[in-house]
Amino acid sequence: ASVASGAYYNAGQGCCAIERVYVHRDVYESFVEALVSEAAKLRAGDPADETTTLGPLVSREALRRVEAHVNDAVRSGASVLFRGKAPAEGYFHPAMVVGGDALRGSQRARLMTRAESFAPVAAVIPVHDDEEAIEAMNDTSYGLTASVYTSDGAAAESILGRLDVGTGYWNACNVPSANLPWTGRRGSGGGSGGCTLGE
Length: 199
What we know:
- It is a single chain.
- About 30% of the residues lie in helices and about 20% in strands.
- The protein has about 200 residues and is of the alpha/beta class.
- It has a domain at about 1-130: Aldehyde Dehydrogenase, Chain A, domain 2 (3-Layer(aba) Sandwich).
- The strands form 4 sheets. Strands 1-4-3-2 form a 4-stranded mixed beta sheet, with helices on both faces. Strands 5-9 form a two-stranded antiparallel sheet. It has a two-stranded parallel sheet with strand order 6-7.
- It starts with a helix and ends in a 6-residue tail after the last strand.
- The relative contact order is 0.17.
């Protein structure tokens, strides 16, 4: 549920929204099944309607951009594992899960794996091991946040220490701390926000 929340909150339009999820092959199918189950609960529509759980994108251009990313991934051999429903009028995009081996490697499906979609689309990418995941997570020009989900705290600390990101989370996402600065690396952010505790 945490990954789904991170991917779909605010229709995926958050600076630290989850866009790519690297999952060990031995749990890939069960993870996809769980994520699709959560995505299927979302209802795109008018934000003033209390039953809506997925609002619109910010503009027509944002809608075109995410569709270009999805189309590029599919042309590269990725699969649309889930596509929800969305109103035809307006800038609505359905919750989606895209996945498959075609998303592995920096030369394939580059828009989906290296650019920001800023939409309710989660790319779920199978990896063989932690090393492959670390390499893939660092293979982007962005570095605001990353999350590692594991029951092994030492492994999480080791992986997070090797990621070129400003903020790392263990078994969580999108939860800034008042005790820590908020910062990014590379193309994400131009400094730090937050304050020293007590100021």
